[in-house]
């Protein structure tokens, strides 16, 4: 999984029928020092994340292993909201 | 998923039989500021996108989860046409 | 899918038995301006492509969706020979 | 697989239900000279690795082939702890 | 598939049980001019390759399509030993 920050939303009404009313979030990829890497992904949200939150997302076929995304043409899913992480025992990020 | 702009079409008559008459679109990858990243993909279109439109596409096995692409040797599918996206509440793109 | 130019062949007699007598082609990745990207792939050929031809190839599990590559340890397959492509209505490549 | 060094842990209580109480480790990718590549991954640990240990991890659908990660939305799993590796007969790394 | 040169071995006794006694080889990725690309992979060997040999390896789910790697948490497998390759009819590599 990669760490990311939810920065926005994508609206797309004309879509493959299998997607249903799924919402799409724009996620800026971050590294483990909480800095943007320059990458991003549009992800389906399986955990109720909001703009500004730091999350973990899975990509590829693993993104389809939630009840919400099963058998959907979706290759990136937010599967957890991050509370905190540490590096060598030192806290690097804490959710506000 | 990634954001992209449809810039052209690819014609290929000699093809694997499982592809049938599927059409291929040339998609320029864009970032969330609507700038080209330098990457591209040739994608199957599951939603009736046209040249000039901004779309979302899925890659890998997720690209085969539409009715159109099921069990086909296809690793990139346009699964939605983008209406709009915003970053931190500010609209970054609106479909004309 | 990505665009590529077939530039050579790879011979490998000591191989996993599931591969049978499959032939391997060396494919130089090209961008949509028909310039090499610096990348390459060794691909199985499902369509009878020859050296010098411009092709499309699929990677990952999608590369196993042809009759030839089904359940084989193969992660890249040429699934079409390109006749032509255009960008914004202007032809960029035509097969000779 | 890639080589990595476990550098920390990620805590995420709000998560997809299928993840259960799975723990997440922060893994810094290293090259075969034992130098950081600049990449990282958040991985599930299938082998009881601790911070400071050098490990191997699998990504993509292969990350779901352990009993622990089967059918979970997880795309990176530590599947072995590295004891040693050598290059051309010269030991490059030994576990302390 | 990608081309690579086997440069070493990785020993890892603490491992996921599904891996059994599988051996791991360190493979330096090479380009089609037989130069290192800077990348590497730790791969399972399905064909009896030795240090110094030039091989082809498959990644992702395709790496699990050999009898040896079926349903294992393994994302890279050496599936052939390269005898020779040519570019535009000129031999670029021959096994010694």
Query: Outline of chain A, from the CA principal axes?
Result: elongated
Could you give the order of the helices and strands of chain A?
A: EEEEEEEE
- Low-pLDDT residue spans of chain A: none
The CATH class of chain A, by name, is Mainly Beta
* Biggest β-sheet: strands ordered side by side in the sheet of chain A: 1-3-4-6-5
Number of helical regions of chain A: 0
| β-sheet strand percentage of chain A | over 45%
Helix content of chain A: under 10%
- Show the largest interface: A-B, 32 and 33 residues
Number of strands of chain A: 8
Largest sheet of chain A: 5 strands, mixed, barrel
Architecture overview:
- Five copies of one chain form a homopentamer.
- Chain A contains no helices and eight strands.
- The first copy, chain A, is mainly β.
- The first copy, chain A, has one domain: OB fold (Dihydrolipoamide Acetyltransferase, E2P) (Beta Barrel), CATH 2.40.50.220.
- In chain A, strands 1-3-4-6-5 form a five-stranded mixed beta barrel. A two-stranded antiparallel sheet of chain A has the order 7-8.
- The two termini of chain A are 22 Å apart.
- The model of chain A has no long low-confidence stretch (mean pLDDT 97).
Question: How is this structure best summarized?
Answer:
With 96 residues, chain A is an all-beta fold. Chain A is 0% helix and 52% strand. The first copy, chain A, has one domain: Beta Barrel (OB fold (Dihydrolipoamide Acetyltransferase, E2P)), CATH 2.40.50.
List keywords for this structure.
homopentamer; 96 residues; mainly beta; OB fold (Dihydrolipoamide Acetyltransferase, E2P); 5-stranded mixed β-barrel; two-stranded antiparallel ribbon; 8 strands; 52% strand; elongated
């Amino acid at each position: 999984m990669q760490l990311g920050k939810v920065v926005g939303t994508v609206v797309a009404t004309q879509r493959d029928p299998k997607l249903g009313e799924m919402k799409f979030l724009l996620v800026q990829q971050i590294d483990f020092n909480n800095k943007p890497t320059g990458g991003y992904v549009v992800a389906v949200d399986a955990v109720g994340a909001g703009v500004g939150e730091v999350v973990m997302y899975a990509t590829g076929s693993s993104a389809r292993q939630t009840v919400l995304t099963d058998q959907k043409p979706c290759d990136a899913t937010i599967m957890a909201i991050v509370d905190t992480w540490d590096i060598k025992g030192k806290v690097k990020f804490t959710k506000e």
